[in-house]
From TrEMBL:
Catalyzes the reversible oxidation of 3-phospho-D-glycerate to 3-phosphonooxypyruvate, the first step of the phosphorylated L-serine biosynthesis pathway. Also catalyzes the reversible oxidation of 2-hydroxyglutarate to 2-oxoglutarate. The lineage of its organism: Bacteria, Bacillati, Bacillota, Bacilli, Lactobacillales. Pathway: Amino-acid biosynthesis; L-serine biosynthesis; L-serine from 3-phospho-D-glycerate: step 1/3. Its EC number is 1.1.1.399, 1.1.1.95. It comes from Marinilactibacillus piezotolerans. This is D-3-phosphoglycerate dehydrogenase. One of its GO terms (molecular function) is NAD binding. It holds the Pfam family 2-Hacid_dh. Belongs to the D-isomer specific 2-hydroxyacid dehydrogenase family.
């Protein structure tokens, strides 16, 4: 039985399905698993008992991934699940800054009388907009979200520039360096994760390179844009505005800043999809040791035919697999199937066996003494009840 701590709200429908993995929601300080959305996972929960953190969503800046890796805890997420939602939010904010439709509709509500159409038309000049077609958009970060935004902007007839660390080979945009992108774009959209590398990437110096009258949209994370720098640049009237999904007190009352309450991915479709994938990823990890999307574990999947599976996670400072194999031999364990995969210096191994459980447990005790080993688990092949055949009654 696994105790699962649930941070943030998840639907009962998904939480009740955890029981398929013998996992049950419990408010404990020492869980085996954590389900979370964008709230911070306290470091105190990352104990050696913890096996997995499953994030419904993409950004993992609220999870101490380094500490998790040290404890052999898999940090799973659901990349791509909210990319369409964020893309649609970005496209609608782009339209909202060039077309004052909401303001125009509000004005109409102030009118009265039979000739309301004439009165309204007389004020049309107050609401002249601009078009996106033909303008330059720069997309910073070409992952699931960035690529979708770039593609839609291209379909709207915009000229699309993109910034990524590697050539993405996309034919609907021109990849340029960040400084060039900032100089050329009328609209710049940030679709990056928050990392040590991206924190403050949009520094005052970089913001000053932006085109006169350009807009910046931040749907990545707040600290990617330097707040002091942004306030200074906005004061000088070089930027037309800053649209951010991450409210900051320093921007309150600034009429050039529009802040949303972190709702880029906040659609019913994205939330339901994220919850389902995060719950399933957690269940599959607990039952089978399977890893699909993780920021610190390599992906791993193997059919579970034999009665037992040993999963091993280690940070490789030297090749320890021969030592592990030697222990398996010493305890006369016959490996049926095995797979190994790596992510950077982290290695994850699945080994399926058909031996006596106590024999495997003794081998595990010895494997746990090897330096670099972060986590070893012994899984039993799940026994699914056979479905009863339903006899067809033919009248
Ligand atoms: N506003 C919201 O509600 C919302 C919703 C989803 C995601 N996000 C944010 O958007 C981020 C991106 O989401 P995604 O689904 O596109 O993730 P993703 O992992 O598919 O893409 C991230 C991209 O950023 C690139 N990248 C990372 N560091 C970089 C750097 N220093 N320079 C250039 N490129 C770099 C990666 O290579 C990757 O291509 C998330 O991490 C999250 O912070 C926000
Ligand atoms: O979980 C959320 O509510 C927002 C998710 C979003 O910021 C993400 O990184 O996927």
């Amino acid at each position: 039985m696994y105790d699962i701590k649930v941070i943030d709200s998840f639907t009962n429908k998904q939480l009740s399905r955890l029981k398929l993995a013998k996992a049950y929601v419990k408010d404990t300080d020492e869980p085996y698993g954590i389900m979370v959305r964008s709230s911070t996972v306290p470091d105190s929960l990352i104990t050696d008992k913890l096996l997995v953190i499953s994030r419904s969503g993409v950004g993992v800046n609220t999870i101490n991934v380094e500490a998790s890796t040290e404890q052999g805890v898999a940090v799973l997420n659901t990349p791509g699940v909210n990319a369409n939602a964020v893309k649609e939010a970005v496209i609608s904010t782009l339209f909202s800054v060039v077309r004052p439709l909401t303001k125009a509709a509000e004005m109409v509500q102030t009118l009265s009388g039979e000739d309301i159409l004439l009165q309204a038309e007389a004020r049309r000049e107050e609401f002249i907009g601009r078009e996106l077609q033909g303008k330059v958009i720069g997309v910073v970060g070409l992952g699931a979200i960035g690529v979708q935004i770039a593609r839609s902007a291209y379909d709207l007839g915009m000229e699309v520039l993109g910034y990524a660390r590697r050539d993405q080979g996309l034919d609907f945009l021109e990849q340029v360096d960040l400084d060039e992108l900032l100089r050329q774009s009328h609209f710049v959209v940030i679709a990056l994760p928050l990392t040590e590398e991206t924190r403050g990437l949009l520094s005052e110096e970089r913001l000053r390179q932006m085109k006169q009258g350009a807009y910046l949209f931040n749907f990545g994370r707040g600290p990617i844009v330097d707040t002091t720098g942004m306030l200074a640049v906005l004061k000088e009237d070089s930027l037309a505005g800053y649209y951010t999904d991450f409210p900051e007190e320093a921007y309150l009352g600034n009429d050039k800043v529009i802040m949303l309450p972190h709702i880029g991915g906040n659609t019913q479709e994205a939330l339901e999809g994220g919850e389902r994938l995060a719950r399933k990823a957690l269940s599959d990890f607990l039952i089978y040791g399977t890893v699909r999307d993780s920021v610190n574990f390599p992906s791993a999947r193997q059919l579970f035919h034999l009665p037992y599976r040993v999963t091993l996670f280690y940070k490789e400072t030297m090749d320890i697999l021969p030592d592990i194999m030697q222990i398996f031999n010493q305890f006369d364990l016959r490996i049926g199937e095995m797979m190994t995969n790596r992510k950077g210096e982290c290695v994850y191994v699945l080994i399926d066996l058909d031996n006596d459980q106590s024999q495997i447990e003794r081998a595990i005790e010895k494997i746990e003494t090897i330096n670099d080993i972060k986590k070893v688990r012994l899984l039993k092949r799940p026994q699914y009840k056979k479905r009863r055949k339903v006899k067809k009654i033919i009248k």
